[in-house]
Structure formats: structure tokens, C-alpha cells
Design a protein that fits this description.
about 240 residues, elongated, 11 strands, alpha/beta
Length: about 240
């Protein structure tokens, strides 16, 4: 096992996932309010000073920008967020450029709101996860983010990532074999961390306990499908 993987598995302190919301239209504003209700640490960025001022009642990190250009986005501090949601669905060019700039900044996860299927296809091709406001309500997306368990990941190649993730609540009390992680999502458990330490000897009859941390190997699509399932199960 390489040094990077050892360091990855030896992290003792869970990192707080922080969120960034760019664009405070109806979808973005509602999403920000919902994140605040969940008690999450998050940043909002918009050109409208009045909207930003409103949200300073729920977050200290509310930034007014003159434009959504690369420098303004970088200077806003959004590069320090683990997950950024681009809510500029009605501004096609801005949406694409901001999404691309965020990906180039190395943001772990970029979610972009798309107004049309064509818009969404382009966003996916440049590496973003896509939601559609007519189908995915802002409150539902917030629920999905709440269910997003990823704490860290290592990319081995274009097909396989290793994720360190909190145990999804719907799996508490289930066995490894009964969880369907492999059969439903093509995710393999390579280690489990709990109060007793870290073990890579995983019995199919092991019963998941609240507080377990999982190290999962699989594709981005498989992990995305898992987080979507957890979000729906939690509604």
C-alpha cells in the first residue's frame, strides 16, 4: 500500500464539508436557506448586494462580486470549499465558465444547475454533476448534500476512486452482504474504521454500526448513485 493511501487511511479527524453556492436566484437562495437550517458551514456568492446582505443573517461568508469571472470567483474564497453548487442556470455562458473555472481550481465536487438537457450535457462533459431545477427541487438537493457522506478520496485512475465515507444512515444495522453496496452500486469495501481501529478483513456478515467510516473502491458513477439513493431514502 503506497504512502498516499496510508496517509489517507490514517487521517484521524473528520473534516467538515463546507459548501459554496454561486448565484442567488430562486434555486440558489432556497438552497442556501436550507443549508443554513441543516447547520452547515457554507459560502454564498452573488452580484446582487441586497440578496447577499439578506443571507448574512444565516452565514458570515456572503460575498458580493462585480462579475462571475475567474479572478472574482477565486478571490471570493470558494476554492476553500469541498463542494460548490453553481446556480446560474439561466445564464448559460456564465454557468459553463464558472463551472470550468471551479474544476480547474481543483474543487473536489462541482454541482451545476442546468436549464435544459443540452446545457446539462455540456456541464457533464466538462466534469460537473448536474441537477435540473424543474426536476430536482432545491430542498431535495440540500437533502442529497446532507446525505453526501464523502470525507476524502484518492483517484487511482479515470475509472476507479477510493472514497473515505461516513456510513449512510439507512445502512446502520445491516450486514455487509445485505447492504447491496457491491451488487447495487459496484462499490467494494476495502476497509472499515471504527472505535476499535481500522480493519481490512471484512466479513460479509459484519453488521454496520453508527459511526463506522467506510473505505470504498469504485467508480464516480457508482458513488454518485449511492449518494442519490441515500438522499431519497432520507426524505
Amino acid at each position: 500500500m503506497g504512502e498516499n493511501m496510508l496517509g489517507f487511511m490514517k487521517k484521524k479527524k473528520e473534516e467538515t464539508i463546507s459548501y459554496g453556492v454561486i448565484g442567488l436566484g430562486k434555486f440558489g437562495y432556497t438552497l442556501a436557506i436550507q443549508l443554513a437550517e441543516y447547520g452547515y458551514d457554507f459560502l454564498v456568492v452573488d452580484k446582487d448586494e441586497n440578496l447577499v446582505q439578506d443571507l448574512r443573517t444565516v452565514t458570515e461568508s456572503a460575498i458580493v462580486v462585480d462579475d462571475y469571472d475567474k479572478k472574482s470567483i477565486k478571490d471570493s474564497g470558494v476554492k476553500n470549499c469541498d463542494v460548490v453548487i453553481v446556480c446560474l442556470e439561466e445564464q448559460l455562458e456564465k454557468s459553463l465558465l464558472v463551472t470550468l473555472n471551479l474544476i480547474n481550481l481543483g474543487i473536489k465536487k462541482v454541482i451545476s444547475v442546468a436549464d435544459t438537457s443540452e446545457h446539462g450535457e455540456i456541464l457533464e462533459k466538462i466534469g460537473a454533476e448536474v441537477v435540473y431545477p424543474k426536476r430536482d427541487k432545491a430542498i431535495r438537493l440540500a437533502s442529497r448534500l446532507r446525505a453526501n457522506m464523502v470525507l476524502d478520496f484518492v483517484q487511482l485512475n479515470e475509472e476507479i476512486n477510493i472514497y473515505k465515507a461516513s456510513l449512510p444512515k439507512p445502512l446502520v444495522g445491516q450486514t455487509v452482504v445485505g447492504s447491496g453496496l457491491r451488487t447495487k452500486f459496484e462499490l467494494n469495501i476495502i476497509a472499515i474504521q471504527n472505535a476499535a481501529g481500522v480493519t481490512d478483513m471484512i466479513s460479509p456478515n459484519y453488521v454496520f454500526q453508527e459511526g463506522d467510516l467506510l473505505f470504498l473502491a469504485g467508480s464516480r458513477d457508482g458513488f454518485k448513485a449511492l449518494t442519490e439513493w441515500v438522499g431519497l431514502a432520507g426524505e
